[in-house]
Amino acid sequence: MKQVERVFPLPYYRINKNFFIYAYSKEACDLHGVKEHLLDIFDEASLTKVKGTIKPEIQKASLEVHLKPLDEEDSIKTADMYVSWENDLYAEVLLHVKDERLSKVTQTLTQLRSRLNDTNFELFEEKEKLEEAIEQSNRLSAPFIVLSADTAMIPLFGDITIEKMHAVEDSLLKSSQREGIDRLLFDFTAVGEFNRDGIHVLTDMMKSLFYMGAEIIIIGIQPHQAKQLNDLKLPLEINYMHSLQQAVAKYCAQ
Amino acid sequence: MSVQHKQLAQYFLNGDEDGALDYMEELVKVHSKAFLYQEIITPAMYYIGELWEQNKITVADEHLATAICDFSLSRLESELKPIKGKHQTNYKALLFGVEDEQHYIGLKMVADTFKEQGWRVRYLGPNLSMEHSMSQIEKFRPDVIGLSAALSYRLPVLKKVLYRFMELEWKPLVMIGGRMAKKFQLDEFESAQVMVVKDLNHLYQWFNEGREGAINETS
Ligand code: B12
């Protein structure tokens, strides 16, 4: 193995088909020290590629490879490699490390990406806050108000959505188990739109309450809403009342 | 043999984000997202690695493909997810790639998988320094910390962060994933608090059966 002078200021090797190094340039030595074997300079995940491409059957080849880091501080480098076989036994190999240009592109991309991720992250945090606010407002949109010893009122607010109904379901079922309450007035006066899935959950909830023994009264419902409710086959015993005033007069006058 | 992943890889390599997104959208109409991630997108990226090994593409192409893949994933995620008022669970996961690690596509899919399972997720991206990750972890107090590493040279860093995370008083479960978890025997790291995850199927399996006892419900 000997060091040789080359015209081009690039790492150069002369190897045999077993990758044994016969000669190398000064630049090669600067790059990766003195090695016996060319395979010793590559990253392990580049070896299949190198072995598959550098063989006498492929007379001239150019390929991209990764070079092993020199030590723990160093990082893996990408290089272009040019190979030319003199004959079946020996090949000349030139390396061109392209890290500088490449790492500039990589860095720029990384910065862009991390800025995007930060933005994404901020958006995501805002979204989570929003979700919490929505959940909070959902939970508050069906308060349980005890009117008298046996009667409670549940005024519903806003659109009837599935998320909202899930948010109030638990506490409603629990509250209505309270001792003595056996009449529930659902007030629809402030309700906006019905959402199919939402109304399903609501009517299921009403059915459960009904079968658990509560008397259910629906108040302030619009005609088109009543129709939608009816399509869902609520128990016949559910009563409807026009206004809250009526209901209070009837059930809470003592 | 399915060729869908090769088709998708082609869209990535051509820089065709519309093509890639359309293709993915068609696939999620008939398949689960889990299938898309595990059986199409992941193999598509591995296939890109094979093309590089066959000297058919360069690292520059890989960069382009990654950007398109990343973009399509983000779009797909935002399209399929309306803002809801409720999380299904109160579990929290924080995910990131260790210092100097630039491979993050896998982690991104993992982040979305956790979200789909109803978790609160902090995805901090790749190449995160120890101080940075520690401060986020202290603030967020996740039940699971997920790390990803592809490069074999990341082993020392990985060890370092693992030991730090094991000292956290609320004892989060630390998951190690990525190419390294696939390729190398990392068994020596595994313990009650550390889990090596080979792929998404493994993660799903954990969601379905293995979670009890691994993290505490109350945190
Ligand atoms: C695309 C790619 C890139 C992209 C990275 C984009 C990205 N994906 O994030 C770019 C171009 C930026 C890149 C850069 C580099 N790369 Co690269 N890259 C690849 C390639 C082709 C595919 C990687 C990929 O996207 N896989 C797809 C994902 C989805 O798979 P995955 O990471 O395994 O993730 C799955 C599971 O593991 C799991 N998972 C992952 N993380 C986690 C975490 C948790 C918590 C859990 C539960 C699960 C989990 O979920 C995923 C879902 O399926 C691989 C080849 C290969 N076969 O891996 C090379 C490869 C990994 N890269 C390599 C190299 C050398 C590099 C560079 C050093 C040089 C270069 N090529 O420029 C730089 C590294 C820079 C740095 N400091 O990190 C080598 C690594 C060699 C080694 N010794 O380790 C490989 C093997 C190519 C090769 N044959 O040489 N690369």
Structure write-up:
The complex is a heterodimer of chains A (254) and B (219). By secondary structure, chain A is α/β, with parallel strands linked by helices. Chain A folds into three domains: 2-97, 2-Layer Sandwich (Beta-Lactamase), CATH 3.30.450; 100-139, no CATH class; 145-251, 2-Layer Sandwich (Transcription Regulator spoIIAA). Chain A has helices at residues 26-32, 47-53, 99-139, 162-176, 196-211, 223-231, 244-252, and strands at 2-4, 12-16, 21-25, 60-67, 77-85, 90-97, 145-146, 151-160, 183-194, 215-219, 239-241. In chain A, β9 (183-194), α5 (196-211) and β10 (215-219) form a beta-alpha-beta unit. The longest helix of chain A is centred in the middle third of the chain and has 41 residues, at 99-139. The mean pLDDT of chain A is 86. Chain B is α/β, with parallel strands linked by helices and 219 residues long. A five-stranded parallel β-sheet of chain B has the order 2-1-3-4-5, with helices on both faces. In chain B, α3 runs antiparallel to α4. The chains are: A alpha/beta (254), B alpha/beta (219). The A-B interface holds A 44-45, 48-49, 52-53, 61, 63-64, 69, 72, 75-76, 78, 102, 105-106, 109-110, 113-114, 117, 120-121, 127-128, 130-131, 134-135, 137-138, 163-164, 166-167 and B 52-55, 58-60, 63, 67, 70, 74, 83-87, 100, 102, 120, 122-125, 127, 151-153, 156. Cobalamin sits between chains B (37-38, 42, 45-46, 48-49, 53, 59, 62-63, 66, 95, 100-107, 109-110, 146-148, 150-152, 175, 177-179, 182, 197, 199-200, 203) and A (43-46, 66, 76, 78).
Instruction: Quote the CATH topology of the largest domain in chain B.
Output: Rossmann fold
Number of domains of chain A: 3
Whole-number count of domains of chain B: 2
Secondary structure tally, helices of chain B: 9
For this structure, what is the CATH class of the largest domain in chain B? Alpha Beta
**Amount of helix of chain B:** 40-55%
Q: List the helices and strands of chain B in order.
A: HHHHEHEHEHEHEH
C-alpha-based Rg of chain B, rounded: 17 Å
CATH architectural grouping of the largest domain in chain B: 3-Layer(aba) Sandwich
Largest sheet descriptor of chain A: 6 strands, mixed
How much beta of chain B, percentage-wise? 5-15%
Which structural class matches the secondary elements of chain A?
A: alpha/beta
GO molecular function, one term (chain B): metal ion binding
Protein name (chain B): Methanogenic corrinoid protein MtbC1
GO biological process, one term (chain B): tetrahydrofolate metabolic process
InterPro entries (chain B): Cbl-bd_cap, Cobalamin-bd, Cobalamin-bd_sf, Met_Synthase/Corrinoid, Meth_synthase_dom
